[in-house]
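S2.1 Query sequence (Acid phosphatase)
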Amino acid sequence: DYLFTAAHYPVWSGCSHGNTQNLIDNLLPLMRKYSVTGHFAGHDHCLEHMEDDSGFHVLSGAGSVRDGWYKLENKEALPASVKLKFYLADDNSQHSK
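Output structure tokens follow.
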């Protein structure tokens, strides 16, 4: 079985808007408790795929734009436990943390 969460805001984001503290405090514990498979979000205008002990996190806020609009400005704000698997942002490059 699979269980997903979805919201406008991401839990984690290495892009311009950064992480969402309210979701870190309130949603993340529930994701762990109920063994959520993954979380889908938008808001930041980039594309990211991350994984941590709460499941995978997909941020797709760039719509149909080929190049992301924002830079990967907050990569260092991601906790060490969050593995950034892929991103597409303003510099139009792929990266693994």
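The chain has a mean pLDDT of 84. The chain has one domain: 4-88.
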